[in-house]
Amino acid sequence: MVMAFLLLTLVVGLYYSRRVTTFREYAIGNKQFATATLVATLLATDFGGGGLLRCVEETYIQGFSWILFFLSTALGYWLLSPLLLRMGPFMQHLSLAESIGSVYGNKPRFITALSSIVCHIFYLAAQIIAMETAIKQCIGLSDSGNIEAMQKTVTVIAAFILITYSMFGGIRSVTFTDVLQFITFTAIIPLLVWFIFKITNKSMVQVISILHKEPKFQLNSCLYMDKLLGIAALFLTNLTTFIDPITIQRIYMASSPIQARKLFLYSSTFAMVIKGFITLIALLLFVKMPTLYKDQVWPYIFETLPVIFKGLIAISILAMAMSTADSMLNIGSIMVSHDIVGNIQTTKVLTDKHKLVLARLTVLIIGVCALLLVFWKRDLLSLLYLAFDFSVPIITAPFLLSVYGFRGSSRTALIGMATGIVAILAWNRCVEPITAINGAFPSMLANGLAMLAAHYLLPHPAGTGWVPPDKIYQQRQQEKARIARRSKQERDGIPSIKRMYCKEII
């Protein structure tokens, strides 16, 4: 069953990889994707296999504090949707790094691309671990001898299947395999929730009563100041990770900022539903078996499942892992060929053919690097924090400022990025060991404040500063103002109509 799904994914990926001849088509397609297709590929990328494993484990262990963080992150799409109306000047770009380079110059563009690639290697390693877990539990391999070697061989085969269609297909191949994988895991996860609920042998009222009596699932367990600060910092950090190269690439695949805004609004609703089902897996499992350790959670789930369910859950984890991993491979290859090598001033300009060859080679190199990383670090939460530290303190503040109209010099951006790097290193060394609070968001703030301070305190060239929004944003604001005035006039007209009606009656 697992191998059949992997082969189906390979066939779909290679089918949609045909006729990719230009680098723009490889990077963002033809910008004629339906909104439903964009929603599916965005959510398939956001919900990775590593995220599924991590969120069930952390919800089971940490309780309400992780539930509060996990469900609140679905609001990220909704909170950032107004930002998309300001992105008109960047909609023809191919990557986040190109957008930063168009505002701040080549050096910040290079740093953004390099930082993003390293960050995505950490994320990709988490997805490979998820694929390995799914295959291992599905086919019942132990951790000894030749069986362990066989399990790793199957994992490598799965990884190279996604590398293959990511290499040759570009974003069209990635998008349509994401749609297949999104349909797969959104159909299977509710089945897992239903099955775990059935094996608890309890009614929903009994389940709620048991959870209510457990201290870590009560609201007051989160009201301690250290926990509140930790949850707030992690939520803000996760919110800013929506400003990442993959999400920005999905925005650039839209035909306009208006379609991109619809994409985020629809995704917010669907994300909340999916996250709710994932949370229910952990809650129902705790009711069934409340004494498991973190590393026993998923082995226990697989042990209690019938064979058919075991295969379905393995396929679901594989679908989630591969839909995230192929997007990371794709955007990493784009940044290397377009933003690093293609941005270096040489006597010979890279043609589309050369960029495509380089991009496909990069997919292979990044995939191999992530495979090697898996042998060094396997804790999913640690990989998540490392990914945060390599991206949020460096690239988020410059991009947000540019979207809101700030136009600074290259020196300004470099000062901010250097400040973000120093801040996250200092935080991880001095503050996090004491408070256990992730420092990516405070370091991002330090980056933004340093950029503004450098702009206003140091001499800056003409043409820098703040610029007004583009026409699309202005038209949208004027339309909202007209609707507000019309509504006010209608509300004000209702009492006068009532008075006239009363006078006629009298």
From TrEMBL:
Name listed for the protein in its UniProt record: High-affinity proline transporter PutP
UniProt keyword annotation of ATP-binding present: no
Bilayer-crossing regions: 35-53, 60-80, 110-129, 149-168, 180-200, 221-243, 263-287, 307-325, 357-376, 383-406, 412-428, 440-458
Record organism: Candidatus Cardinium hertigii
Top-rank lineage group of the source organism: Bacteria
Stored CDD domains: SLC5sbd (cd10322)
Keywords noted in UniProt: Cell membrane, Ion transport, Membrane, Sodium, Sodium transport, Symport, Transmembrane, Transmembrane helix, Transport
Subcellular compartments: Cell membrane
A biological process from GO: sodium ion transport
Gene Ontology terms, MF aspect: symporter activity
One Pfam family recorded for the sequence: SSF
Membrane topology, record value: Multi-pass membrane protein
InterPro entries, A to Z: Na/Glc_symporter_sf, Na/solute_symporter, Sodium:Solute_Symporter
